[in-house]
Amino acid sequence: MTATLTGEEIARYRDDGYIKPVTVFSVDEAALVRAEIEVLERDHDQGAGGHTLNQFFRVNGQVTIPLLAEIARTPAILDAVESILGPDLLVWSCELFIKEAGSEKIVSWHQDLTYWGMGETDEEVTAWIAFSDVSEAAGCMRFVPGSHKQRIQPHKDTFEGDNLLSRGQEVAVEVDEKDAVFDELKPGEMSLHHGRLFHASGPNRSADRRIGMAIRYVTPSVEQSVGSRDYAMLVRGADRSRNWINIAPPSTLFGEGSLALYDRILADQTAALTAGAARSIGLYTQSEGTAQ
Ligand SMILES: O=C(O)CCC(=O)C(=O)O
Predict the structure, then answer these.
(1) Which of 5, 166, 226, 232 could pair with 272 as two cysteines, CB 3.0-4.6 Å apart?
(2) Are 128 and 241 within 8 A, CB to CB?
(3) Average pLDDT, integer, range 84-99
């Protein structure tokens, strides 16, 4: 399967700050991935190396979980991302966003780049892939078209318990829900969104789990400017930038070396990802189960 975007789709991404839906897996392939995620939940619910499974799922999943690193290298996903970012692509983080059936968990309105220490770059895109039916009822993402043309706006920490984000962060400007479009996706479909796009998601009122994976792609030119160093996995082309410590995909699940690397990355990234927090926060360290 190839998913190279057309000129018209690329223009729409530039104008709206997102593009959807792009099919990157067949329904059967998506079901297989979901089954593998659910095997992980069944067999590794205690986590590994002192981390909960939830933490591996929510930040840098590609470092210790081969399945997630492999998904991030799927040619069809890379074709579409290459259409936006060009031929040299790195993966900064893989994250699973899972909401159980009937879950009240939400994601408040935010701009991703606010907390990543990468400035206001246009050289980052998130691929969000559905592994279940991600309908409006299931709490799909909502986007405000064109909002990526704004600079990074002030955000406030809410620390609300039902928020899937690490500090319940929320953009501190009024968002008119009438402007929002729903990012409904079928299993195997993905959307791409810009790191300054206003986006949010609601509770899961459907009868099934809502399972999605966010992959943060950057080009080698992006620089970590808050933390002292940062890490990324080269997935297409070349990285001649020296901006990133290049990491390899893991060969085994929760291997000793990749667990040590995970600790190192988390320690280095915590400075950037928790900068300015109103109170001390761990990055998804709370043991709230694998799915929220
Ligand atoms: O899955 C969600 O509900 C939110 C995901 C999100 O905020 C993101 O991928 O940037």
Answers:
(1) 226
(2) no
(3) 98
The residue whose CB lies within 8 Å of the most ligand 1 atoms, and thus the one to mutate among 92, 94, 107, 189, is 107
Q: Whose CA is nearest to atom 8 of ligand 1?
A: 214
Nearest atom in ligand 1 to the alpha carbon of residue 210 is: 1
The answer to whether residue 221 sits within a structural domain is yes
Round to whole Å and give the CA distance between 185 and 183.
6
Please give the number of the atom of ligand 1 that sits closest to the Cα of 140: 3
Give tens-digit pLDDT for 190-214: 999 999 999 999 999 999 999 999 9
Please say if the pLDDT value at position 289 is more than 70: no
Which residues approach ligand 1 with their CB closer than 6 A?
Answer: 97, 107, 112, 126, 128, 141, 199, 201, 212, 214
CA of 106 to the centre of ligand 1 (A): 9
- Residue numbers of the domain that contains 76: 7-273
Q: How far is the CA of 240 from the centre of ligand 1 (A)?
A: 30
Q: Is residue 278 part of a domain?
A: no
Mean pLDDT of 141-167: 89
What's the structural domain count of the chain? 1
Is residue 283 a part of any domain in this protein? no
